[in-house]
Amino acid sequence: MSEKLPRPSSLWEYANPRRFMALSGATLPFVAAGTTVALIVGLAWGFFFTPDDYRQGSTVKIIYLHVPSAMVAINAWLMMLVASLIWLIRRHHVSALAAKAAAPVGATMTMIALATGAIWGQPMWGAWWAWDPRLTSFLVLFLFYLGYMALWAAIENDDTAADLTAVLCIVGSVFAVLSRYALVFWNQGLHQGASLSLDKEENVSDVFYWPLLICLAGFVGFFVLLILIRTRTEVRARRMKALQARERMT
Amino acid sequence: MIALLKRDLALSVRAGGGFGLALAFFLIVVTLTPFAVGPDSGTLSPIAAGILWLGALLSCLLSLDRILALDFEDGALELLATAPIPLEGVATVKALAHWLTTGLPLTLAAPALGVLLNLPEPGFKWLTLSLAIGTPALSVIGTFGAALTVGLKRGGLLLSLIVLPLYVPTLIFGAEVARRGAQGMPLETPLALLGGITLATLALLPFASAAAIRINLR
Predict the structure, then answer these.
(1) Predicted ipTM of the assembly
(2) Would residue A11 count as lying in a domain?
(3) B69 phi and psi, to 5 degrees?
(4) How far is it, in rounded angstroms, from Cα A81 to Cα A192?
(5) Structurally, how many domains does chain A consist of?
(6) Which residue in chain B has the smallest CA separation from A187?
(7) CA–CA separation, A24 vs A14, rounded Å?
(8) Which residue from A143, A164, A175 is facing B148, i.e. has the nearest CB?
(9) Under an 8 A CB cutoff, do B190 and A185 touch?
(10) What average pLDDT score do residues A218-238 get?
(11) Do B172 and A147 make contact, defined as CB atoms within 8 angstroms?
């Protein structure tokens, strides 16, 4: 393990577990530092140095947890979809392990978004929960995460599990999008429109905009950090399995 | 493929095939509903269409693991995989056999159970039609779930956990058609969307099912 690896000629070479471990090990402290700074600055700025909203009072500040976690919850599934496709097409094990690592993080983020949404919704709408398309589609997304994780946990053979969960992830993505539109059709809701978009008219007002952006960066960094750590753990667990198998042979 | 269909139908109708189980379960769900929400016809009437759809969906779920599990255990699935017909075709035929033995009887039984739940008069036609259009999608999606979990010893509960979220769009549009039909509202849009879901799943999902079966047989 000590000899130097030649310089990579393509991005795909990071699919080699050794290269992935080297690169992720080297970048991990920077990601961790950046995430910590962004989260502390963003949340502190958001919680203590922005004015209360004139209608919502201080409850508006839950936006700094709600919007970033919701965004990560959706994009985690997107990342799993990409990783699953890479695994099915190019058979890079690190990719399958990254998809596996992302699922619990995504599920937790979905839970955080739902919980903060309920806490926010209670004083604003007068209800913890409403069968609104946005809320409901997050609940459905959470169920998709549960099914995906349960399938990973249930299958013993690693490659079979990776293949089947990848197929489920692809089919699930189509059905998740379908459910989203079905739910919009099913019930018009209470939830406001997008908090962030390129269309400036629709955005939250400027005072909240910058701390929210920093919080978003912090949450994305946090997601990347967790994925790196969890994928490294999976790679190590895989290596340990291989070593144990070798031990039993001799 | 017709031979396979005949074989699957015969197997499910004969001993231990679970034919009729779904119907009995459907009847029980419908019978239990008034115990839970009260016998008042004013309460039952507006939710009848939804309860019938939900009951049909859950009954459909019961027999899903039988679609492939027995063939997997005795090796018949491996023979089918090496047979000269494509595995996608096998998956479609399996789904069709499942629909003929559960979806179709459920559809035919639903109006009778609708009487028990005090379904409004114009709803019967639309309930039957929406079930007839929607239940094939349930069978096809269920076959995909069965293909994913066929290699597992006790995959039943996992199968439900995987398949139920996939049933969400079908349930929404199917129940919407039945509900609007019962209330005499226009229902062309959900009906078209329900048909679209059935046709799309029928066209695409057998490929995913066949891929999953291949992985499990490896």
Answers:
(1) 0.86
(2) no
(3) -60, -45
(4) 28
(5) 1
(6) B172
(7) 10
(8) A164
(9) yes
(10) 94
(11) no
Nearest CA in chain B to A143: B165
Q: DSSP letters along A43-108, please?
A: HHHHHHSSPPBTTTBGGGGGHHHHHHHHHHHHHHHHHHHHHHHHHHHH--HHHHHHHHHHHHHHHH
Per-residue pLDDT at A194: 58
d(CA A6, CA A139): 47
C-beta atoms surrounding B116 within 10 Å = 15
* Residue A156: Cβ within 10 Å count: 10
* Per-residue confidence in pLDDT tens, chain B, 218 aa: 788 888 888 777 776 656 778 889 999 999 999 999 888 888 888 889 999 999 999 999 888 888 888 888 888 888 888 888 899 999 999 999 999 989 999 999 999 999 988 888 888 999 999 999 999 999 999 999 999 999 887 777 899 999 999 999 999 999 999 988 888 888 888 999 999 999 999 999 999 999 999 999 98
Domain that holds residue A67: 20-249
The structural domain count of chain B equals: 1
Cβ separation of A182 and B169 shorter than 8 Å?
yes
Q: Is residue A171 a part of any domain in this protein?
A: yes
What confidence tens digit (pLDDT) does each residue in A32-63 have? 999 999 999 999 888 888 777 666 677 778 88
d(CA B24, CA A192): 45
A4 is a domain residue = no
Q: Scan for tokens 């955080």, then name that residue.
A: A112
Using the predicted structure, report yes or no on whether residue A98 has a pLDDT greater than 80.
yes
Burial of B54 (0-12, 13-18, 19+ CB in 10 A): middle
| Rounded CA separation A198/A207 (Å) | 17
Judged by CB atoms closer than 8 Å, whether chains meet at B158 and A179 is answered as no
Reference A196, options A211, A217, A177, A212; nearest CA is A212
Which of A139, A145, A151, A165 would best serve as a mutation to test chain B binding (most B beta carbons within 10 A)?
A: A151
pTM, two decimals, is 0.88
Contacts of B212 in chain A (CB under 8 A): 164, 167
Closest listed residue to residue B52, CA positions, set B202, B182, B157, B142 = B182
Choose from A88, A164, A184 for mutation: most chain B CBs within 10 A. Answer: A164
Contacts of A179 in chain B (CB under 8 A): 165, 168-169, 172
- Minimum CA–CA partner of A159 in chain B: B215
| A150, A160, A175: residue with CB nearest B161 | A150
Asked if residue A187 is part of any domain, the answer here is yes
Full domain range(s) for residue B98: 2-217
